[in-house]
Please model this.
Amino acid sequence: MKILVLCTSPGLGGLELYAEREWQYLQQAGYECHFVIAGNRRLAQRNRRRSANIFHLSRNSKFFPLVNALKLARYIARNHIDIVHMHWGKELNLAALAKWFSRKLFRHRVKLIYTRHMGITRSKKDFAHAFSYRQVDMMLTISKQVEKEARTWLPLAGDQIKLLYLGVADKTVDKPDCNGLPEKTKKAQFRVVLFGRIEYGKGQHVLVEAMAQLANRKLNISATFVGQIMDDDYFEKLKQSVKKHGLEKRIAYLDFIDNPMAVMPCFDVVVLLTYCETFGLVLVEAMRAGVAVIGTDAGGVPEIIEHHKTGLLIPPGDAGMLADELVKLYDDADLKSRLARAGKNRADREFNSELHFNKLEHLLTAVGE
Model:
C-alpha cells in the first residue's frame, strides 16, 4: 500500500507537525509514504535536507487549486498512490480535484481520507461542497466534539466518519535544559507557559489580563508565550497591553520550539486558552511531560482534562478565573503535583502515539482494501 500525506498549510503548529510525524512513522513502519507540502514554507524548511518522497507545491499558482490539482494528480498516478491522507481543511478542493483528475485523466483510482483537525460551525451540505465531499472516502475526527459536528453538518454517511484521538510520543528529557529560557522566566518562582501560534484565537491576551490581575498580589510569577507570530497586529497589541499593565519584567516571548516537551518541565503549569479548541494536543504533551495543565472548558478539551482530577478547566476568555486557578496552584504545591501525576498517567495510557498510529494503520488498511 502506497500512501501520500498531504499538508500544504503555510504555518507550523500541531496540525503540520502531526502530518510530518505521520509521514515519518509510516515510512519507518515499512510503507512507501510520500509527503506533499507547500514549497518555501516552514514545513519545507524543516525538511529541506530530505528529498526522498517529498513533493513541493507552490501556493502562489494563479489558478490554484486547478493547476496544483493537475500536478498532484499526475504525481499520484506516476507513483501509483493508493491513499491520499489530507489534514488541512483549506486543501479539500485541491485533494478532491486531484483525486478526480487522477481517475479521469490518468486512469488511476485513489482513496481520499480527511482528518478534520478544526471544528465545523455551519452546514456544508450545499451544492458548492457536494463535489469535494463526494470524493472523501473516510473522515477521521480528533475528538467527539468534532465527530458530532461532522455528523450534523457534513454530507457524509455515518459509517464514513470515525473518531481517532491524536497521540504524542514521550519526548520528555530526564534533565530539561532551562538555560535557554529568558532571564525574566528563569528568575520567577512560579512559571506559566502558553504554547501556540500568536493570534487572537489562541487567547494570549487572556493570560496577559490574568497576569495584570495578579500583579498586585506580590506573587513571584512569570508568563511565557512560545509560538510563531501569525498576526503581527495582534502581537503588537499584546505587547502594548503588557506595557500598559507594567508587566514587561514578568512576560516573555519565544519563537516556535521544535520539541516543546523537552522544555515543558521547566514550567509549573501549561495553559491552553483557545475559545473552542477541537482537541488540545499541547495539553497531552504537557501531561505526558508531567506538568500541570489548565485548559478552557470548551470543544474537545474536556475530553482530555477531567476537572480537578487531571487538570483544571476554566470558561473561555475568563481571565479572572484563570488568575484564581493560577493562585490555587501557586499556593498549593501538593495539588499541583497531584494533578500533574494524574494527568501523566491518563495521557500515557490513552493518548500515546503508539496507540494512535496503530489505530491509524488499521483504518488506512481497511480503506485501501
About this structure: The two ends are 9 Å apart (CA to CA). DSSP finds 13 helices and 13 strands in the chain. Residues 154 and 182 are 46 Å apart (CA to CA).
